[in-house]
Amino acid sequence: MSLKHALVFLLCTICMLTNPEAQIRLSLNIGLQPLWGPVGYERADNYYLPDIETYYNVSSRKYTYQIKGHWVTTYSLPPDYLDYDLYSAHKVVINSSRPYLNHTVYRDKYAKFRNRNDQSAIRNSRDNRYFENKGHPRHEEWKGNGHDNRDKNHDDRGNEHGEKGDRKDNGHHGR
Question: Any idea where the domains of the chain sit in the sequence?
Fold first, then answer.
């Protein structure tokens, strides 16, 4: 190994060892995921919505879908699906850039998830990792905002003691 390569290796190793939390945080985006996103994913770059053959990019908060054979990217759902309920829809997490470029593969692979309403949305999660999301009904309990994040409304068995925040909306909120 040349001296130059050894120095680069040493510098990279030092950077990773001095701040390992920063290295991990780069790949997590729980706080950026929409409230209608599915629980269980610390990282989600894109969601595929099989019912309407649409992709949602978490970081840009934009939808990508086809209109007359051309891919368009916008802040709103396809015109025919403006009332589509994102909270009850099945979402497939796809962690790759521009997944719509492989649309045929994803459409065929995930066709079995059409018309399935079997996922729990982040908004309804009692997992305190999701409280980081500013729109979560229990955001005030998130440890990152200086509050105690112990679960005061549930006992250790998950039984609820407080009111249930059952809002009626479809997750669009002007986007």
Answer: 32-120
β pairing state of 46-49 and 92-94: antiparallel
155-168: average pLDDT: 36
* Chain segment 59-102, per-residue pLDDT in tens: 999 999 999 999 999 999 999 999 999 999 999 999 999 999 99
pLDDT tens readout for residues 29-69? 777 899 899 988 889 999 999 999 999 999 999 999 999 99
Which of 33, 55, 57 lies closest to 43 in space, CA to CA? 33
C-beta separation of 149 from 141 below 8 A: yes
Beta carbons within 10 angstroms of residue 94's beta carbon:
19
Residue 32 makes CB contacts below 8 A (sequence gap 6+) with: 58, 59, 133
CB environment 129-167: b (16+ within 10 A), e (fewer)? bbbbbeebbbbebbeeeeeebeeeeeeeeeeeeeeeeee
Say which DSSP state 142 is in.
Answer: -
